[in-house]
Amino acid sequence: MFTPFQLAKKYIYYYLTAANGKGHGTHSPFVFNFITKVLQNNQSYPCYKTIEQQRQLMLQNDTVITIEDFGAGSTATKSNQRVVKQIAATSLKSKKYARLLFRMVQYYQPTSIIELGTSLGITTAYLANGNPSARVYSCEGATAIAALAQQNFNQLDLKNIQLITGNFTSTLPALLQQINTVQLAFIDGNHRQQPTLDYFTQLLPATNRNSILIFDDIHWSAEMEAAWAQIKDHPAVTLSIDLFFIGIVFFNPDFKAKQHFVIRF
C-alpha cells in the first residue's frame, strides 16, 4: 500500500486535475445526471441520522474480538485481536461515501445488490435504505465482525439484507449461482490486484446493460491502481468514473464510445 504521504500527493494531483464535479462542460447526459442528481444531491434523508447514531455506538465500543483476515490486512494492526472501536475508526467507509452509495441506490433503483466486505454493516445499512424493495447480499469473511453487523441490522430494523459469512473465494461463486443477475455491487474486500480482478471476472457474467460495479480504494496501492486500470479498460465496460476513493463502472452499450471521467468529489 502507498504511504500516507504518497496517497496525499496522489489526492492533491487528483483534486487539481479532476473535473469540477458540478457538471459544467460534461457532454455525456448520463454523467451530467449522475453529477447533478446523485453526486451533488445535498438533501438530508431520515436514515442518515439513525445509521450515523449506530456508527457512533461502534466508535465507542471497547469490546475485543478475534477475527480472521482474508484480505490485504488492516493498516492499523497486524493482530487478529481487534477492538471494535478501532475497526470502526479504520475500516468503515466515511459517511460522505456511504451516503453517496445510498443516493446511487436510491436514484438507479437496483433490486439485487452485492457487497463484498460487510465490516460492521454501516455501508450495508445505507445500501439497504436506498431501496427497501431491493435484496442486499452482503459478504463478510470474519465471523465475529459479521455477528456485530447483524446486530446493527437488527437495531436498525433492516429486513432486506442477507448476510453471508465466509471466504469470498467460496461464498461469491455460490451466491452468483443463486441470484443470476447483479444490478449493483460494491467491492470492498481483498484490496489486492488479483483478487479484485477475480471478483470483477466472476461478477461480469451476472451483469447487464443497467448494472453498476463500484470498487473501493482504487488508489490505495500500486496493485489496486493496476487492477482499476484493467477493469476500466475491459471491453465490456462502456463508462467509468474515478472519484479517487472509489471507482465506478457501467456497461450500457448505448454509450457511443468508451468514456472515462475523473470527477472531483
Describe the model:
With 265 residues, the chain is an alpha/beta fold. The protein has helices at residues 4-17, 29-39, 46-59, 84-91, 95-108, 122-130, 143-155, 168-179, 193-203, 222-232; strands spanning 64-66, 81-83, 112-116, 135-140, 161-165, 184-187, 212-216, 239-242, 246-250, 259-262. Strand 3 (112-116), helix 6 (122-130) and strand 4 form a beta-alpha-beta unit. Helix 3 packs across helix 4. The longest helix is centred in the first third of the chain and has 14 residues, at 4-17.
Instruction: Let me know the largest β-sheet.
Output: 8 strands, mixed
Count helical runs.
10
Query: Which series of helices and strands comes N to C?
Result: HHHEEHHEHEHEHEHEHEEE
Q: Mean of residue pLDDT?
A: 93
* Helicity, as a percent range: 40-55%
Please state the structural category: alpha/beta
Q: What low-confidence regions span 5 or more consecutive residues with pLDDT below 50?
A: none
Across the major sheet, the strand order is 5-4-3-6-7-9-8-10
Determine the oligomeric state from the structure: single chain
Give the beta-strand count.
10
- Rounded to an integer in angstroms, the radius of gyration calculated over CA atoms is 18 Å
Provide a short characterization of the protein structure.
The protein has 265 residues and is α/β, with parallel strands linked by helices. Helices cover 44% and strands 17% of the residues.
